[in-house]
Amino acid sequence: MAAETQYTANTGMVVISTANSNLDGTGTLGTLLTAASNGTLVKRIIIKSTVSNTEGMIRFFIYDGTNTRLRQEIPVMAITKAATTLAFEYTWDCDLKLQAGDILKVSTEKAESFNIIAEGLNWGYYSTSVRPESTNFTANTGSAVISTANSNLDGTGTLGTILSAGSSGSGWKGCRIEGITIKALQTTTTGMVRLYIYDGTNTRLIKEVFIPSVTRSATETSFETQLSLGNFQLQASYVLKASTQNAESFAITVEGNDWKYPA
User: Fold this and answer.
1) Which residues of the chain have a pLDDT value below 50?
2) pTM value?
3) Can you list the domains of the chain with their CATH numbers?
4) 181-202 residue pLDDT tens
5) pLDDT at site 136
6) Pick from 146, 141, 200: which is nearest to 169 by CA?
7) Do residues 241 and 194 lie in contact, with contact meaning Cβ atoms separated by under 8 Å?
8) Continuous segment of H or E residues that includes residue 181
9) Angstrom distance (rounded) from CA 168 to CA 171
10) Residue 73 to residues 5, 79, 261: CA-CA distances in angstroms?
11) What are the b/e assignments for 66-89, b being 16+ CB within 10 Å?
12) SS3 146
């Protein structure tokens, strides 16, 4: 962030208690936090049960105004709370960046009560004295679900559009890709997820991710992996796309930051 970056705390809190076993974003979800105009950094999320628990799952989703995508599953242990026994508690140090208007939502597998608290920071800029060489970042969180089988490595066949870098015509200089999460929405068989860069004319394979066989359940998380491309700097207006080898559903989330300089 620029030297003139200013931060404002954005603390989200919600109680969830309605059972929801879905991974596709349907069913009852609690609204935890909404991202601000330049984006919001969610540093950590605290899950605290207020009852005795059976084994289950807490799920976090990102809603972009149209689509709701699964981002994370947190297993819940069976604990019988008592005067001398702590109720279930878990802290997820997520450092998750949400773009403006995105909403972080949450559900519980079992009809048991949990307090969900998010520690967020909105960022803005002190515009009256910003230096012309300062870099202004705006969160660009891309997401899509891919599910159509495609064995090609040459960029043909069905591809999902995951993220589009800010347009050069709007002054953006590029998009810094800080993290990619691939989350299965079902039981998986061995296969592959492939990532591509599209420059407006050509589609080039940049990464293949091996998918193992994983059987999901109410108490077992589906396949998940997090990738780092080393803060890859994607050129303005370029597009990140993805495909799946097998006809299985995956939610792919990309945390990016578009950047520009003050006029």
Assistant:
1) none
2) 0.91
3) 5-124 (2.60.120.340), 135-260 (2.60.120)
4) 999 999 999 999 999 999 999 9
5) 84
6) 200
7) no
8) strand 174-184
9) 5
10) 32, 18, 37
11) eebbbbbbbebeebeeeeeeebbe
12) strand
